[in-house]
From TrEMBL:
One biological process term in Gene Ontology: photosynthesis
Cellular-component GO terms for this entry: membrane
NCBIfam families to which the protein is assigned, alphabetical: BchY (TIGR02015)
Pathway(s) this gene product operates in, as recorded in its UniProt entry: Porphyrin-containing compound metabolism; bacteriochlorophyll biosynthesis
Annotated source species: Sulfitobacter guttiformis
A Pfam family matched in the record: Oxidored_nitro
Name of this protein: Chlorophyllide a reductase subunit Y
Length: 520
């Protein structure tokens, strides 16, 4: 390895500046594997002793038609949860390209702190030196003046190699150490990776509570029973839910994933948990272990709010009269807001946030025709009521929907508006269909209660009004090519069909070889 830049493997590298945090030297070589090698990586992980963990992932997050995620790297979900918490540091262990990409996208979404990185090479990975490097890095960062906890995350390669984060100290100088594995070959979506970390932190906090008194959350303790909200949501939504709970003599509790460690204690100290987003399997398990009942769906739209308030009343043993009073306070205003600016048109909806079914309910009650809803998340008992409501309205609900499912539905239905992920929106616009990106334009709005009832109508109606303009744009760009022939050419592109045929044969041989290997 002569001529190679070296940095000491005991250092944590700040990927934002490219410098070491402590100032010594370690090898930065990388392996050739990545999330594109899903089957091989999973086999390696099982051989390395991670079968139990992968079986747990398979039970918690059953896969769909694909063996690897179709959205961004799943680890972004857990990374984002950690970066949004006060006094929590994050260290990643993985290939440099993965760490770079995750750090870039975390800053794109507003992270304002550095991401720690423990580099490795083939030698340190195989000999176990990487684990020693991680342990030393954690000791270096564990400053109780700065941190309540440190999150250490194994990406694909360290997980496949069996780097045992479970052997890290439980705490150092009073700083909690949370080690998690978030491999792309085990976690189907970045949404579910949020649950991996949320569940791990809730488990740690629950064990702390069992061991003795814990610090009071910064917000204090409510004098009324609280409902913990499970799932990231628009900041106004917990406030709206709190207003609807007040007539019942209840209060809204913390939102999980939390923003600081002490909120975890408040989240566990609740009367019930509202699984607003239904994919938090690990977190639900911890709440149930603490004896907390869980309610699915959400107070969204007219029917959703009425049913959700009734469900809350049943959990807390409230009288029908008291629940009816609360319903009468909010349902008329929700009904009026839904009717104020109705949506007239057909919409296909898909995404990977976990709230797709809730948004579809709101659109339908606003007057829209929604024949198809696709969600990248798996089916669960917490989304069952929403799925049943939608299917009763004639909606095709597709869990673990693939990109092909979503695009196929849009192409077949030819809606007035397509709401979906980036590639769905891209495909829709190519077809001249007005399209909206779910994450930035839909889920970044209030959805609950009165505030949510009219929040989507303006943006949806405005987008559907662009149908004529989309048609003009499609006509204007007609003939500029598509895929590898895109652009304006002075003469016809120089196609090489023989190259395509040769490559197709290579792919066919590789597929046959892989199938043969599986049969051995």
């Amino acid at each position: 390895m002569s001529g190679e830049t070296r940095y000491d493997a005991t250092d944590v590298v700040d990927v934002d500046t490219g410098t070491e945090l402590e100032g010594r030297d370690v090898p930065l070589t990388q392996d050739g594997l990545g999330c594109h090698s899903g089957n091989e990586m999973e086999k390696a992980a099982r051989l390395a002793g991670n079968s139990e963990m992968l079986d747990k992932f398979a039970a918690d997050y059953p896969k769909g038609p694909h063996d690897q995620p179709q959205s961004m790297c799943p680890a972004f979900g857990s990374l984002r949860v950690g970066l949004r918490m006060k006094r929590v540091s994050t260290i990643l262990s993985g290939s440099a390209c993965c760490v770079y990409g995750l750090t870039f996208v975390s800053h794109f979404y507003g992270a304002r702190r550095s991401v720690g990185y423990v580099p490795f090479n083939s030698e340190s990975l195989v000999t176990g030196k990487l684990f020693e490097d991680i342990r030393e890095a954690v000791h270096d960062v564990a400053d109780p003046e700065k941190n309540d906890a440190i999150i250490v995350t194994n990406l694909c390669v360290p997980t496949a190699s069996g780097v045992p984060l479970r052997l890290l100290p439980r705490e150092i100088n009073g700083v909690r150490i949370i080690g998690i594995d978030v491999p792309g070959f085990g976690i189907p979506t970045h949404a579910e990776a949020k649950d991996v970390l949320a569940g791990a932190m809730l488990k740690y906090a629950r064990e702390e509570i069992k061991a003795g008194p814990v610090p009071m959350p910064a917000s204090g303790k409510s004098d009324r029973p609280t409902v913990t909200l499970l799932g990231e949501m628009f900041p106004a939504d917990p406030m709206m839910i709190g207003q609807m709970l007040a007539p019942l003599g209840l209060a809204v509790g913390p939102v999980v994933p939390c923003r600081e460690w002490r909120e975890l204690y408040g989240a566990l100290d609740c009367g019930a948990v509202a699984a607003i987003h239904p994919f938090y399997t690990s977190a639900v398990r911890e709440f149930q272990a603490a004896g907390r009942p869980v309610l699915g769906s959400a107070p969204i739209g007219l029917d959703g709010t009425a049913d959700w308030l009734k469900g809350i009343g049943d959990i807390f043993g409230l009288s029908a009269e008291k629940v009816g009073e609360a319903q009468n306070m909010f349902l008329p205003a929700i009904k009026a807001a839904l009717a104020a600016t109705p949506i007239n048109g057909t919409i296909t909806l898909s995404g990977y946030e976990g709230s797709e079914l809730l948004v579809a309910r709101l659109l339908i009650e606003s007057g829209a025709n929604v024949p198809y809803v696709g969600t990248a998340c798996a089916k669960s008992e917490w989304s069952a009521a929403d799925a049943a409501w939608l299917e009763a309205k004639g909606v095709k609900v597709k869990f673990r929907a693939s990109l092909e499912d979503d695009c196929g539905a849009m192409e077949a239905i030819q809606p007035d508006l397509a709401i979906g992920t980036t590639p769905v929106v891209q495909k829709g616009k190519e077809m001249g269909i007005p399209s909206l990106y779910f994450t930035n334009l839909i889920s970044a709005r209030p959805l609950m209660g009165v505030a949510g009832a009219g929040s989507l109508q303006e943006v949806v109606n405005a987008a559907m009004g662009n149908k004529e303009r989309m048609g003009k744009m499609k006509a204007f760009f007609e003939g500029v090519g598509h895929g590898d022939t895109a652009g304006v050419w002075e003469k016809s592109p120089n196609l090489k069909p023989e190259f395509r045929a040769l490559n197709a044969k290579k792919l066919e041989r590789a597929a046959k070889a892989a199938k043969a290997a599986e049969m051995i």
